[in-house]
Write a structure and sequence with these properties.
Layout: H1 3-30, H2 32-49, H3 59-78, H4 104-122, H5 126-137, H6 142-149, H7 153-174, E1 175-179, E2 185-189, H8 191-194
Antiparallel strand pairs: 1-2
Amino acid sequence: MDQDSAVPARFQTVHDEFRPRVLRQLTRMVGASEAEDLTQAVMLKVSDGLAAFRGDAALSTWIHRIATNAALDLLRRKKLAPAGALDAQPDEIDDAPDPDTPSLEAVAIRRETGACIRAFIGRLPDNYRSVLVLSEVEGFTNEEIAAVLSLTLGTVKIRLHRAREKLRAELAAGCSFDHDAGGDLGCDPKPAAVGA
């Protein structure tokens, strides 16, 4: 197999492995309406750059850095309203009914709570939202986040701490949390927070 045919074969493997992860990340950062097109653009950049990839960082770090930069560029360019930027995917695990409480009501409460929290995450400044999504949603370590965002480890830790504190304060000010009879957590936006 020559060099020219090895790159497309390698890209297909990379595409199959990373495209779903990139789509999920971008959906949470820029919203479902923009994520599909942006994912295509990211995968095109990966395809174009794969032959020159030197391996200075892990392949996953390199790909997620491309995706994060593309999302931040889009957010800066379009000045997107972040409130809807974290639309849930219908096939997400957290939307699946709990085996102990398979009622439709429990599923609806879980979805509403998740949507409420995602709306508040979507209102965070871009620099806080990006570290929070990479950490809490994608499961990246602080070191991986630093590599993806080209930040120092200290900066990542500070931003992550501040993002969590800001989210905690925003949720406390904007939501009323309670548990139903089955123990499921519910979130009701406070009236002042609905129009925010």
